[in-house]
């Protein structure tokens, strides 16, 4: 971890020293004349890149002077590759990546502020909580929301009924009671928790449900050590310490299919993948919003941003393509192509497009309900580099029986240091 941070720090220093065009206060790059040939680095799977290429090819039919080549970046090294491209000022014209990437690379001069490209319609169609997460403290938007993903509770109604449960748990208390009853009824693993299992992402749900936050609203200090955060961390840790939730990632679809798993907290994209990978489960599973905590509902929303690199020769052409991705035509084509190539559900930031998804009414309604409760990652300085160390502090509560208050106080120190 220290080696990675040292390399990143060195690259960032070079980027700040070497940039002549900033994504913030400076004028955006001038548009080159002639046809635009754009390279789009999409962080995600090869299947997602293929789906996007099909969409880009459709765009070319109505924009013959714009050619877009989509390349896949893995999540493992995508961040480092985009940082290197920004440092060298050569590489893709368009990038997609983690929700914090736009702010991080934009404030280093690596991406343009899309506000200068008239993105008012896109901002109006984005959930306020998502827009807040991707907008820098100064108001710049270096990357708009490309797709959304959030946690849902997948479950087998028949297994719940056999354990004497009338439906999915709706509160923290009902969740632990359900796990206890399912275990007694012979279910091997009543609950699994995926999507960055045993890391800060799933813990964030508990934090929001307890009424806590990672930082103060003005990013002046970390608030991860609040009383609400301590309660959330203790409750989250009890899943693993008392109720047998695995710390290792689990194939939730396979577990639901063979009956070893009754409930799975997993990402929204799994909603279509269950039936495509385990057709024998069709009609035998359902989905619900996450159980609520003492402060009510709360769900982490992730996904990708998409933005334009500051050195591109075609800032306008690149931004026009991004704007088109928010149209009904593009969204519905992406939904279709992602499903056909990967079996997954692709969720647009536009909530009004949920009804166009090729999925069940139960999934659609749960997506709508959950989208009303989402909170994105903080837009505060230093969060991107703090995440791994914060995860270690959270894990120490489970692995080493560290007091939650002590672990969170240490996490707050790290976060406050990175704020400077």
Automatic annotation (TrEMBL):
It comes from the Bacteria. Gene3D superfamilies: Periplasmic binding protein-like II. PROSITE patterns: PROKAR_LIPOPROTEIN. InterPro entries: Bact_solute-bd_prot1 (IPR050490), SBP (IPR006059). PANTHER family: ARABINOSE-BINDING PROTEIN-RELATED, DIACETYLCHITOBIOSE BINDING PROTEIN DASA. This is Extracellular solute-binding protein. It comes from Phytohabitans maris.
């Amino acid at each position: 971890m220290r080696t990675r941070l040292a390399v990143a720090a060195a690259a960032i220093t070079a980027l700040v020293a070497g940039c002549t065009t900033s994504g913030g206060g400076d004028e955006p790059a001038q548009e080159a004349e002639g046809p635009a040939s754009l390279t789009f680095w999409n962080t995600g799977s090869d299947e997602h890149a293929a789906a996007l290429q099909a969409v880009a090819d459709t765009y070319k039919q109505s924009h013959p002077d714009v050619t877009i080549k989509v390349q896949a970046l893995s999540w493992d090294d995508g961040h480092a590759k985009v940082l290197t491209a920004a440092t060298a000022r050569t590489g893709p014209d368009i990038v997609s990546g983690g929700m914090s990437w736009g702010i991080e690379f934009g404030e280093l001069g690596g991406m343009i502020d899309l506000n200068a490209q008239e993105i008012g319609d896109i901002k109006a169609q984005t959930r306020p909580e998502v827009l807040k997460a991707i907008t820098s403290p100064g108001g710049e938007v270096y990357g708009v929301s490309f797709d959304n993903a959030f946690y849902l509770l997948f479950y087998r109604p028949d297994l719940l009924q056999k354990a004497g449960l009338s439906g999915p748990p709706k509160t923290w208390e009902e969740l632990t009671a359900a796990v206890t009853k399912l275990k007694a009824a012979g279910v091997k693993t009543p609950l699994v928790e995926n999507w960055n299992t045993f890391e800060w992402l799933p813990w964030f749900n508990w934090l929001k449900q307890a009424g806590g936050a990672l930082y103060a609203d003005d990013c002046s200090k970390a608030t991860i050590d609040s009383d609400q955060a301590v309660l959330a961390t203790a409750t989250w840790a009890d899943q693993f310490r008392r109720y047998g939730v695995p710390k290792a990632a689990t194939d939730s679809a396979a577990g639901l299919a063979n009956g070893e798993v009754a409930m799975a907290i997993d990402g929204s994209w799994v909603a279509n993948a269950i039936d495509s990978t385990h057709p024998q489960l069709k009609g035998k599973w359902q989905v619900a919003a996450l159980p609520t905590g003492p402060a009510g509902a709360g769900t982490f929303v992730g996904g990708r941003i998409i933005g334009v690199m500051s050195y591109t020769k075609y800032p306008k052409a690149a931004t026009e393509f991004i704007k088109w991705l928010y149209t009904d035509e593009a969204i519905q084509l992406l939904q279709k192509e992602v499903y056909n190539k990967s079996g997954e559900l692709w969720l647009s930031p536009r909530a009004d497009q949920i009804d166009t998804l090729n999925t069940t009414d139960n999934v659609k309604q749960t997506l709508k309900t959950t989208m009303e409760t989402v909170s994105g990652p903080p837009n505060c300085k230093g969060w991107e580099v703090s995440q791994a160390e914060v995860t270690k502090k959270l894990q120490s509560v489970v692995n080493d029986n560290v007091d939650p208050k002590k672990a969170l106080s240490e996490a707050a120190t790290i976060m406050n240091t990175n704020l400077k």
